[in-house]
Design a protein that fits this description.
Blueprint: H1 11-17, H2 22-74, H3 77-96, H4 99-102, H5 105-127, E1 130-132, E2 145-152, E3 161-166, E4 169-171, E5 174-177, E6 179-185
Helix pairs in contact: 3-5
Length: 188
Amino acid sequence: MTDDSKPQGDPAVEAELAGVPDELLDHETDKLGEALDRLREDLEMAKQEVLYAKAETQNVRRRLEKDIADARAYAATGFARDILSVSDNLARALDAIPAELREDEKLKNLVAGLEATGRELDKVFGLHGISRIAAVGLPLDPNQHQAMLEVPHAEAAPGTVIQELQAGYMIKDRLLRPAMVAVAKKPD
């Protein structure tokens, strides 16, 4: 007694199921189908979670790589700030030497050595991405300049830097030290 509408499968399985009522088989088949649908949903959810986890891992990796690159690029920031005062003192010492002493044969080599030291210091700054901020003649930029005083000035536009009191520096694209400046204002 075979039903022609049923697919033919394994004869041993067909023999086992020969005595089972069709309603029970249909009910069990439905339960298996529901279980299979749940498993497919669970598999799809697991795939999505794996994709999200991979994306998050990649984002964390990128952030860490950026942090490492920043740490390498800006590791010397503290040291650079400290050495700027040495550079400032050297520049002040050179500026304090009067012209007549610069020509004195006894001091000529000393002055030349100090100037060479200043050039070498500037070269080392350049090698490490430390650059001086331009100030005099430019409009005040609060991201790079710190206005220390306002000076009445008839020729310069208000807000223009007219004097640099202390040089400012950048390390790569970050501010290392703002330039301390005097800014023009309208005369009274």
